[in-house]
UniProtKB/TrEMBL annotation:
NCBIfam families: 1,3-beta-galactosyl-N-acetylhexosamine phosphorylase (TIGR02336)
Name of the protein described by the UniProt record: 1,3-beta-galactosyl-N-acetylhexosamine phosphorylase
Organism the protein comes from: Neobacillus mesonae
Source organism, top-level taxon: Bacteria
Domain (Lacto-N-biose phosphorylase C-terminal) ranges: 665-716
One Pfam family hit: LBP_M
Length: 723
């Protein structure tokens, strides 16, 4: 492979000049960055590279924050559930929270801004029936109903930034002061952020790119009394709440938010919850404010002749890169952490910026780079899953973060990343402005739609959870598949119908979640719009508990179209005779062993017309069904794997009535894929495994030839026809 340079960002640190020069040469880096906990010395800043400097807007300024503790950021929290034994109940509302991070807000009247709720009835307790003991951090209810449960929703000041706290614990920063986050919605803080940045730019003339990490409000991350993570939601808006925000919201939107609109029964409006109209209003309110204030900072950066980059993490709340306000910020670039293909697409597809950058794993921290561990394994897995997505739409740059001195101690890792950076540049220079071949247009249907493009079923970014991997696999499979992907909401369909160019709709998730849809499926306009679209020739794939909402004799509201429903015990008296699988099927042709992940229990076929493809343990896990001129497919779960990617591809082509086109630009081996670029007469054949693979590769005209690929190989070949 030809040695090239550029499009790579290297982390560095003080007293590491010669090693930095060496790795710049080997990895072809043209930019150098600091990281959380590191600084660049003057000699490194003089190297032939762009200099990225991490910039914290609302943390790391304790000399200011300590003088204005009344302008600390705030959160609404909910106490534990407390059972009343008598008509008096005393609630220790801070129990279970980390007092080094959080302090109750007694500056503002609790009777106005807090809420005590009888969770047995759901009724708000009259403020005259409870009082606050500030010395003991307790609420005393004086007219409780015995054996009812009660909670307190209360405001706190956040006095320790959660990312710094995490790094403090992970990297043993025992001697570092706690960063105090302040709220730029407040007058002193708002003025300070602009003045400080103006002076900082003058004091850092060697900085070329200001890497905002990020702007104002951290995703919701609250620690427990043991200093461990208690609640973490990468999408959470909890830390954007304040008395000032509540008052401004009422003025702008014309109604007042309740504390319950934020604490949400203790679920805090996670992205799995079907969002309420009030919470959607609040998100829009925050996004508008963040865009307006962030633009002021970006303008200051541009006036100094530097670039403004946003890190899609830490304090990213309110920026929503697929939201309607993001464009107004005027950023030059966005950088985000890469956990696999879905996160690559989340970053690469972001509109309204000049370039995007992916920060690859592993991060150069001691939790990975320690004696006896091999970081090449994680790096290889991360690259192979990301590479599929890069071949669909590459980020413009890649990079790493952390302590370069740690990574340097692992020569095999250094050599592997040298190979990765060269391979990335080869891909980018070949295909960046080229449209790849797509055989289908696929729409992911959920409550969030385009606002959360490539962001469904995540909790803390790309971390594994038992409840999500069976669905997150859908996104991961699609991220590098030869299909166009769009994200639509239930409200979009009710308002505008299904987009005309969509071949297949996918609805995947557990019942009651924003991803399956919950109460949305009670809307007859939604149900009839989707039902008629399928009947007129559309393809629909349901995964897990699609369209689930118990209503009028169905659990799956599209059960008649899907040909399956879920037994809840209500219809046990009705016999289920349809249990015989078909002998073979287009969808399962390449599958040697099924993996439905956590799967789904008690799914049964409604009639003999349902094509049962996999039936075991007395239930259907994979099936298809015709509905008018359309087709549907049911899958019990789809964790990411090479075989499941193939299963999903076949299911989509079958649902779309396009089986005859399946072998266009195709590899017979499930561990291999073909990405075609007819406009430049090239195709990439890739091996997604770490073993040698043999495959038949089909071109755009159905001609096949045998190819043997080395482990992890990417091979470029010319297209000899129009395709």
């Amino acid at each position: 492979m030809k040695k090239t340079r550029g499009r790579v960002t290297l982390p560095s640190e003080q007293n590491f000049l010669n090693e930095t020069k060496e790795l710049m040469e080997r990895w072809g880096a043209d930019a150098i960055r600091d990281s959380d906990g590191t600084k660049l010395d003057d000699e490194i800043k003089q190297l032939d590279a762009k200099i990225y400097t991490t910039y914290f807007v609302a943390r790391g300024h304790n000399e200011f924050a300590e003088k204005h503790m009344e302008e600390c950021q705030q959160l609404y929290l909910m106490s534990q559930f407390n059972t009343a034994l008598t008509d008096t109940l005393e609630i220790e509302f801070m129990k279970g929270y980390f007092e080094e991070q959080l302090r109750p807000d007694y500056l503002h009247d609790p009777k106005k801004y807090w809420e005590v709720i009888d969770r047995t009835t759901g009724k708000v307790v009259d403020p005259s029936d409870w009082k606050v003991n500030e010395e003991a951090d307790r609420v005393v209810i004086t007219k409780a109903v015995p054996w009812h449960e009660y909670t307190v929703s209360f405001l706190v000041f956040a006095v320790w930034d959660p990312t710094q706290m995490y790094n403090h614990i992970t990297n043993n920063w025992g001697d570092k002061p706690h960063d105090i986050p302040f709220d730029v919605r407040q007058p002193h803080s708002n003025e300070y952020m602009k003045n400080y940045l103006t002076q900082w730019l003058k004091d850092n003339p060697d900085t070329d790119v200001v890497r905002f990490t990020t702007f104002f409000y951290h995703f919701t991350l609250v620690f427990n009394n043991l200093g461990k993570e208690k609640f973490v939601d990468w999408f959470g808006y909890g830390a954007s709440v304040s008395v000032a925000a509540l008052d401004a919201f009422e003025k702008e939107k014309g109604y007042r938010l309740r504390p319950e609109d934020i604490v949400d029964q203790g679920y805090y409006n996670t992205s799995f919850r079907v969002p309420s109209p009030a919470f959607l209003d609040y998100m829009d309110f925050v996004q508008k404010f963040v865009a307006e204030e962030a633009k002021k900072l970006v303008d200051i950066v541009h006036e100094s002749g530097k670039e403004a980059m946003m890190f899609l993490g830490d304090n990213w709340i309110g920026t929503e890169p697929y939201g309607k306000h993001f464009e107004k910020i005027g950023l030059d670039a966005v950088v985000g952490s890469v956990g696999g293909g879905a996160t690559i697409r989340m970053i690469a597809d972001i509109p309204h910026v000049r370039y995007t950058e992916g920060r690859f794993l592993p991060y150069f921290f001691p939790d990975t780079f320690y004696e006896g561990n091999n970081p090449v394994i994680e790096a290889n897995e991360n690259w192979l899953t990301a590479r599929r997505a890069i071949l669909r739409n590459p980020v413009d740059r890649i990079g790493y973060g952390g302590y370069l001195s740690l990574a340097y101690k692992f020569p095999d890792f250094v050599s592997y990343i040298e190979k990765v950076t060269d391979e990335f540049r080869e891909i980018y220079e070949t295909i960046k402005v080229v449209k790849p071949y797509s055989g289908l247009k696929v729409a992911i249907l959920n409550a969030w739609g385009g606002l959360r493009t490539w962001q469904t079923h995540m909790v803390a970014h790309a971390l594994w959870y038992k409840q999500i991997y069976s669905y997150l696999g859908v996104l991961e499979a699609l991220s590098g598949a030869s299909v166009d992907v769009t994200f639509i909401s239930f409200d979009d369909v009710v308002r505008d119908g299904v987009p005309e160019d969509v071949d297949v709709i996918i609805n995947a998730g557990d019942a009651g979640t924003a991803f399956s849809g919950g109460v949305h499926w009670k809307n007859e306009k939604l149900v009839t719009a989707i039902r008629s679209w399928i009947h007129n020739g559309g393809g629909f794939i349901g995964i897990g508990e699609p369209t689930a909402y118990q209503h009028e004799g169905h659990y799956f509201q599209l059960a008649t179209a899907l040909g399956v429903d879920k037994e809840l015990g209500f219809s046990l008296s009705t016999d289920k005779y349809f249990v015989t699988p078909v002998k073979e099927h287009f969808i399962s042709a390449d599958i040697s062993e099924y993996d439905f992940g956590e799967g789904m229990k008690n799914i049964y076929a409604l009639t003999e017309e349902t094509e049962i493809i996999e039936y075991s343990d007395g239930e259907v896990h994979l099936s298809s069904h015709s509905f008018g001129n359309g087709r549907t497919v049911y899958i019990a779960g789809l964790p990411y794997s090479e075989e499941n990617t193939r299963l999903l591809m076949r299911a989509m082509y079958y649902a779309a009535h396009k089986e005859e086109e399946f072998l266009k630009w195709h590899a017979s081996n499930v561990y291999c894929e073909v990405h075609a670029y007819p406009a430049i007469q090239k195709m990439a054949i890739i091996n997604n495994s770490m073993q040698e693979q043999k495959t038949i590769v089909y071109d755009g005209e159905g001609n096949g030839k045998e190819v043997i690929l080395a482990p992890s190989e990417i091979r470029w070949e010319a297209i000899l026809h129009e395709g």
